[in-house]
Amino acid sequence: MVLYFYPKDMTPGCTREACDFRDNLSRVRAAGAQVVGVSTDTPQSHEKFTAKYDLNFPLLADPDKRMVKAYGVYKKKSLYGRELMGMEGTTLGIDRHGTIRKVFPKVKVDGHADAVIDALRTLD
C-alpha cells in the first residue's frame, strides 16, 4: 500500500501530487499496490477535490488529527520565522503484512510518484 499524507486539498503542490498518483495508478497497481491519501480536510472537501480532479483512489478525512498524530506526520513546522503545528507531507510504503517498509519524509512533489513506484518493488 502507498499511504500518503498531504497538507490540504486544492493547494498547488497537493493537487500535483494527487494528480501524479492518479495518472500513474495503473503502474502502482501493476506493482501490486493501492494508493490511499490522507489529510485533515473534511469528507466534503475530499468529495470536491476528488470530483474536480477525477481522482481514482480513496482519500481519508482526519479532521480530528488522530491518524496524522499516530503516524507522526503532524509536526512543529517553521514558516516565515514562526513556529506552528502542521502536516508534513509524508508517504509510507506498507507491505502486505501491514509493516511500514519505506518512509518518504518531507515529500517534494516533482518525481515523487516515480520514486514511490520504484520502491514498491522491494515491499513484498
Spatial shape: globular
The tally of strands reads 7
Structural class: alpha/beta
Radius of gyration: 14 Å
Average the pLDDT over all residues and give the rounded result. Answer: 94
For the terminal residues, how far apart are their CA atoms? 10 Å
How would you describe the overall organization of this protein?
This protein has helices spanning 12-23, 25-30, 43-53, 66-70, 112-120, and strands at 2-5, 35-39, 59-61, 74-79, 82-87, 90-94, 100-104. By secondary structure, it is of the alpha/beta class. The strands form 2 sheets. It has a 5-stranded mixed β-sheet with strand order 3-2-1-6-7. The chain has a two-stranded antiparallel ribbon with strand order 4-5. Helix 3 links the parallel strand 2 (35-39) and strand 3 (59-61).
Keywords:
124 residues, alpha/beta, two-stranded antiparallel sheet, 5 helices
In brief:
The protein has 124 residues and is α/β, with parallel strands linked by helices. It is 35% helix and 27% strand. α3 (43-53) links the parallel β2 and β3 (59-61).
Topology:
Elements (H helix, E strand, L loop, with lengths): L1 E4 L6 H12 L1 H6 L4 E5 L3 H11 L5 E3 L4 H5 L3 E6 L2 E6 L2 E5 L5 E5 L7 H9 L4
